[in-house]
Structure formats: structure tokens, C-alpha cells
Write the C-alpha cells for this entry.
Amino acid sequence: DVSPATHPELATLVDYAVTYYQDRVRPNKHYRIPSADEIKHLQTLASALADLPHDAEAEDIQSAVFAVGKAAGYEPLRNWFSCLYQVLLGQDEGPRMGSFIKLYGMDAMQELISQAVSGTLAGDAE
């Protein structure tokens, strides 16, 4: 069982990570509004993720994300991932999406996509 009481050094590291994020990362985040085409692609991604089992492996999730971008015609495919980072994460670069979604959670990612598509995510981080 991992808790601050049983692993105080881990609790300290988590506190440092949260402080770093709040002080250095969050102030620089800007979530852009997706274009009409990007909204369609994000909705396609949401459907593709919904078709995966909740316990899907990160590689399977990554393959689904990759397939949506490829089918949408992003060339180079890096542009699809840039879209995801800018619209969903508020930054120009980011983590490997399959691993991120696995860690973040499929339901949470569906909600994040929904917020992006509706425009409620756009703007500077609060």
C-alpha cells in the first residue's frame, strides 16, 4: 500500500512535481480551438477509443490514435500529434499519446475530447 505515511520520500517528490507544474508548466499552456476538420477527427478518435477495451494496452491505444491521423490524411503524421497536443494538452509537444491516454484514463480522455470539441477547453490554463 503506497501512501504518504508509508512512503514519505515519494510524497515529497509528488509535492515537488505538482509545484513545478503549477509554477513552470501551467502558466505557459494555451489550448487552441480546433478547426472544423479537426473536430471531425477528434470525434473519430473518440469513437476509436470507445471501441477499445477499457484495459487496452498503451500500444493498442497508440495504434488507434495513429490510425485516425493516417486516415484523416495528416502528412506528415506529426501534424496530427501536434493538433492533439495543442488542442487537448495546451502545448506544442507532449507525451506518447497511447501511454498518456492509458495513464490518464479512457473515460477522462473522452471527456477531454468532448471539452475540446465543444470549445470549453480553449484558452489559457486557469
Summary: The helical segments are 8-25, 36-50, 58-71, 78-89, 97-104, 106-118. Residues 8-25 form the longest helix (18 residues). The chain has one domain: 8-124.
